[in-house]
Design a protein that fits this description.
heterodimer; A: alpha+beta; Porin; 16-stranded antiparallel beta barrel; 4 helices; 25% helix; B: alpha/beta; Rossmann fold; four-stranded parallel sheet; 10 helices; 44% helix; 11% strand; globular
Chain lengths: 501, 313
C-alpha cells in the first residue's frame, strides 16, 4: 500500500510529467505545422506566377488574332463596297442609256444617301400637304332631301277645301337643302332652303324654311336660337314634312298652327339641373306657322303684336323598353293685326283675327326594345290642341263699323296615331284626325288614314297611305277618298336630330 | 300679392340655380360612356374615384343606342364622355351631346375622350358614298373586340382621368397596371385557347369582327348584311350560301342585336354552326365585364370550331 505523503508526491510528479509531455507535444506540432505552411506558400506563389504568365500569353495571342481578323474583315468589306459601287455605276450607265420619261434636266441620283434625301423630301411634302388648310375645308355639311307625292283624290279642291286638284296628281312637295356648320366656338348655324311646286300654278317656288343661329356654350344650361326657325310647340309642328310618320301634316296642326311652326324670332331653351329630364322653352317671334301670311306687315307693331310661345316637356322610363314623353305647349298673340286678312265665311260674313291663343297637350308612348330597336318598335302619339281666338266679325262681309262686333271662338282639334315596326324596312300604322274649324267650332272634319312604310334603306323610303276625309253638315264639304304614294330620299349629309328621336 | 308671387318665384329660381352651382358628388369623377366595355374599363382604371354611367346596357346595337332623354341629365353633369370613336356612335351621340348642354364634354374639350386615338383603323373606305351602305368614313370602329387594341382605349381613359383628377394619379396608375396585367395574362390565355381554331373561317351579320379575326388568326369570310346597315337581298343570300359552301365556312356568328331568322337559315343551308356572340359586355348572360365577354367569345368560337371546323380535324 502506498503511504499518503508518497501518494501526494506521486500525484504531483505525475502531474508535472504529464504537463511537460503535453507542452512538448504542442510545441512540436506547432513547429511542424509552421514548416508545412512555409512550404505551401512558396508552392502557391509559384503556381500563381505560372498562371499569370499563361494568361498573359493567351491574352496576347487572342489580341493578335482579333486584330488580324479585324484587318481581314475591313479589307473584305472594302473590297465588297468597291465591287458594289462598281456594279451601281454600271447599272446607272445602263439606265442612262435606256429611253426615259424623266423630265428634261432630271439627273440620275448618285448613291443611297441621295435616294434617302429624296425620300425624306417626298415624305415632308406629303406631311406638309396634309397640314395645309384648303379653303373648302370650312364648308358646312350639306344634305338634300327630295320628296315626291303621287296621289289620287276623289274630290277636287273646291269640295275638300284643299289646295291640290282632284283626280290623279303628282306633286314635287319639296326639294330641301340642309346646310349646317359651327359658326365659331360659341354657336352653330344652319339653313333649310326649300324649293317646291306652287300648288296652283305649278311653278317652282324657293323659300328659306329655316336660317338660324344656335348657341352651344351658354352657361346655366341655356341655349338660345335666333333667326327663322321652327318654334318649339307641340310634338310634330317643328318636324319637317318628310320626317313625319305619315304622309300629310295632321289637320289640327294645319288649322291652328298653319302647318309647320315657322317663326322669325328667338327662343331660349333651359335644361333644369336636376336628375330628371325636363325641358323648358320660351320664345317670341313675328308670325307663327309656316303657311300663314305675315302678321301685321307694313304697319307699326307693338310688343303685343308678337307671338309668344313656350313648351314644357318631360320624359319617363316605364321599363327599359317602354317610355313616355309628354309635354304642354302654349301660343299667344295678344294683338294680331289682320293675320290672314278677312276670312270669308259660308254664311257671307267675314272674320278677321284680333287675338290668337292656342294651347296643346301631347304625349308619345314608345316601345323601343333595346336589343333590336332597329327592327322592332311601337309608337302611340297623341296631341290635343285648343284654339281660343278673338275675331272681328263683319256680318255682311264688308267693312262696316256700325255692324261689326268681336267674337271669341274656342275650337278643339286632335290627332292620334299608332305605328308598329316589325322589320328594319317595314312599318305600318293608323292616323286619326279630328278638327273643329278655328272660326266656327260647329264645322267639324274627321279623317282616317292607314299607312304602310317601306324603307329600302335609311335614305330611301316609300310610303303608301289611304285617307278618308269626312265633314259634318255644317262644313258643307263632300267626303273625300285619297291615296298617296310618297317617295322621299336623302343625299349627302344627314344628321339625326334631337327633335326627330 | 304680386310682390309675394315675385318673391316666391325669385326664391325658387335662386334655389334651382344654387343647386346647379353645387358640385354634384364630393370628389368623384363623373364618367359617361357610350358602351359597356368602355364603362368596364373606366371602372377598372378609376376605381373608387369614379361614378360611371353607360348609355348602352350591353344588348343594343353599337350604332343604334336609343336616344333617351333620361340620358341627358347624366351627360349634363358628366366630367368625361368616353366614346369608341371612328363614327361608331354617329347615329345617336351628336344629338345627345347637343341636348346635354355640357361644354366640358363637347368635341375638342378635355372631357371628350375619343378612345380611337392611337388606333390604326382597318377598312378605311376609299370614298364615303352611301352606295357602300352606312359606311364609316374613318374606318371600321369595332377595334375593342381585339383585346390588344382595347389596351389603347384603356390608356386613353387613363390619360383623361389623370387630366381631370390629377390628385388621384397614383391610384389610377396602380389600377391601370393591375388591370393591364390581368388583361395581358388573359390575352395570352385566349391566344393559346384559340390556337386549335387557327385559320377558321366564319361569317357574321355585321362587320364587327375584323380586328378580332386578325388578332386570333381567324379568317373573316364576310357579312350577312349586304352592306353596313343594309339587310341582305335574296340574291345576295343565295350567293353567300354558295360561296360559303365552296369555301367550307363552318361558323355563322349572329350578334344578339340582329334577328335570328336569316343567320339560322344560312347556317342550315351551309351546314355551319350558328353561334350567338356579344359585341359588348352584357350582350348575353354572364358577360358583364370585358374579360368575361372575351372569355365567352373565345370559348364559344373554339367549341364551334371543334364541332364543325378546323379544330375538329
Amino acid at each position: 500500500m502506498i503511504p499518503a505523503n508518497e501518494n501526494s508526491e506521486f500525484n504531483l510528479s505525475m502531474k508535472l510529467r504529464t504537463l511537460l509531455w503535453c507542452a512538448s507535444t504542442l510545441l512540436l506540432s506547432v513547429l511542424i505545422v509552421q514548416a508545412q505552411g512555409t512550404n505551401d506558400n512558396e508552392k502557391f506563389e509559384n503556381q500563381l506566377k505560372q498562371l499569370q504568365e499563361k494568361f498573359d500569353k493567351q491574352q496576347r495571342e487572342m489580341r493578335e488574332s482579333f486584330e488580324k481578323q479585324q484587318r481581314e474583315l475591313r479589307e473584305s468589306f472594302d473590297r465588297m463596297s468597291r465591287e458594289q459601287q462598281a456594279e451601281i455605276e454600271a447599272l446607272k450607265k445602263q439606265i442612262a442609256a435606256m429611253p426615259t420619261n424623266a423630265p428634261p434636266g432630271a439627273q440620275p441620283e448618285s448613291g443611297t444617301a441621295d435616294q434617302i434625301k429624296e425620300l425624306n423630301e417626298k415624305v415632308e411634302a406629303v406631311v406638309e400637304a396634309q397640314t395645309k388648310t384648303r379653303p373648302n375645308e370650312f364648308n358646312p355639311s350639306i344634305g338634300l332631301v327630295g320628296e315626291t307625292i303621287f296621289s289620287y283624290s276623289s274630290q277636287g279642291a273646291a269640295a275638300t277645301n284643299g289646295n291640290r286638284a282632284g283626280g290623279f296628281d303628282v306633286f314635287q312637295r319639296s326639294v330641301e337643302l340642309n346646310v349646317a356648320a359651327s359658326v365659331d366656338p360659341f354657336a352653330k348655324g344652319y339653313v333649310v332652303a326649300n324649293a317646291s311646286a306652287d300648288p296652283v300654278t305649278g311653278d317652282a317656288t324657293f323659300g328659306i324654311e329655316e336660317a338660324a343661329l344656335q348657341t352651344t356654350s351658354l352657361p346655366w344650361n341655356l341655349e338660345l336660337k335666333a333667326g327663322r326657325f321652327f318654334g318649339e310647340f307641340g310634338r310634330l309642328s317643328y318636324i319637317h314634312d318628310h320626317e313625319l310618320p305619315f304622309v300629310n301634316r295632321p289637320l289640327a296642326l294645319d288649322q291652328y298652327i298653319g302647318g309647320e311652326s315657322r317663326t322669325d324670332g328667338a327662343q331660349v331653351n333651359w335644361l333644369p339641373p336636376i336628375p330628371h329630364y325636363v325641358s323648358l322653352t320660351l320664345g317670341a317671334g313675328n308670325g307663327f306657322g309656316g303657311d300663314s301670311p305675315l302678321n301685321n306687315p307694313g304697319t307699326y307693331r307693338a310688343l303685343s303684336g308678337f307671338n309668344y310661345f313656350g313648351r314644357l316637356s318631360s320624359y319617363f322610363n316605364l321599363t327599359p323598353d317602354w317610355n313616355v314623353e309628354t309635354g304642354g305647349s302654349g301660343l299667344i298673340n295678344p294683338s294680331t293685326q289682320d293675320r290672314g286678312g278677312a276670312i270669308a265665311q259660308p254664311n257671307g260674313s267675314a272674320m278677321t283675327e284680333k287675338q290668337r291663343q292656342v294651347v296643346g297637350f301631347d304625349f308619345k308612348l314608345n316601345w323601343v326594345p333595346l336589343q333590336n330597336n332597329q327592327f322592332r318598335g311601337f309608337t302611340w302619339g297623341t296631341e290635343v290642341l285648343y284654339s281660343d281666338s278673338r275675331y272681328l266679325v263683319e256680318p255682311d262681309g264688308a267693312q262696316n263699323p256700325a255692324g261689326e262686333f268681336m267674337d271669341r271662338v274656342g275650337s278643339l282639334g286632335l290627332y292620334s296615331y299608332m305605328t308598329y315596326k316589325w322589320h328594319r324596312q317595314w312599318s305600318a300604322g293608323f292616323l286619326f284626325d279630328y278638327v273643329q274649324n278655328a272660326q266656327n267650332h260647329d264645322d267639324e272634319t274627321f279623317a282616317y288614314s292607314p299607312y304602310i312604310t317601306y324603307a329600302l334603306s335609311h335614305w330611301n323610303q316609300l310610303r303608301l297611305q289611304y285617307t278618308h276625309t269626312d265633314h259634318n253638315a255644317v262644313a258643307g264639304l263632300s267626303p273625300d277618298d285619297a291615296v298617296y304614294l310618297q317617295w322621299a330620299w336623302i343625299i349627302g349629309s344627314h344628321a339625326h336630330g334631337w327633335q326627330q328621336r | 300679392m304680386k310682390t309675394n308671387l315675385f318673391r316666391l318665384l325669385s326664391l325658387t329660381m335662386a334655389a334651382v340655380l344654387g343647386l346647379a352651382a353645387l358640385p354634384a358628388g364630393a370628389a368623384k369623377v363623373r364618367v359617361v360612356t357610350t358602351l359597356t366595355d368602355l364603362a368596364d374599363f373606366a371602372r377598372n382604371v378609376g376605381g373608387d374615384h369614379v361614378d360611371v354611367f353607360s348609355l348602352a346596357t350591353g344588348v343594343e346595337d353599337t350604332h343604334g343606342v336609343p336616344m333617351k332623354p333620361s340620358f341627358v341629365p347624366f351627360m349634363n353633369r358628366a366630367d368625361l364622355l368616353v366614346l369608341v370613336g371612328f363614327g361608331c356612335e354617329h347615329a345617336f351621340l351628336p344629338a345627345l351631346l347637343e341636348a346635354s348642354k355640357n361644354p366640358r364634354i363637347q368635341y375638342g374639350r378635355p372631357g371628350y375622350v375619343d378612345c380611337a386615338k392611337g388606333i390604326v383603323p382597318a377598312e378605311v373606305p376609299k370614298s364615303t358614298d352611301h352606295s357602300a351602305g352606312d359606311v364609316h368614313p374613318y374606318g371600321n370602329p369595332h377595334y375593342i373586340l381585339d383585346p390588344v387594341l382595347a389596351k389603347t382605349a384603356i390608356q386613353n381613359i387613363y390619360d383623361a382621368l389623370v387630366v381631370v383628377a390629377p390628385q388621384y394619379r397614383e391610384d389610377f396608375t396602380r389600377n391601370r397596371e393591375a388591370y393591364l396585367a390581368k388583361l395581358d395574362a388573359k390575352i395570352a390565355e385566349w391566344k393559346e385557347t384559340l390556337l386549335p381554331a387557327r385559320g377558321e373561317k366564319f361569317v357574321s351579320y355585321h362587320e364587327h369582327w375584323v380586328y378580332f379575326a386578325k388578332r386570333f388568326n381567324l379568317v373573316y369570310f364576310g357579312t350577312i348584311e349586304l352592306k353596313p346597315g343594309i339587310d341582305p337581298t335574296a340574291r345576295y343570300i343565295e350567293s353567300l350560301v354558295a360561296s360559303m359552301k365552296a369555301e367550307h365556312v363552318p361558323v355563322v356568328v349572329r350578334e344578339p342585336q340582329f334577328p335570328e331568322k336569316v343567320p339560322a337559315m344560312i347556317a342550315r343551308q351551309t351546314g355551319a354552326k350558328l353561334v350567338k356572340l356579344p359585341i359588348m359586355p352584357g350582350g348575353v348572360p354572364n358577360t358583364e365585364t370585358y374579360i368575361k365577354m372575351m372569355d365567352y367569345i373565345v370559348h364559344t368560337m373554339l367549341e364551334a370550331s371543334k364541332e364543325k371546323g378546323v379544330a375538329s380535324r
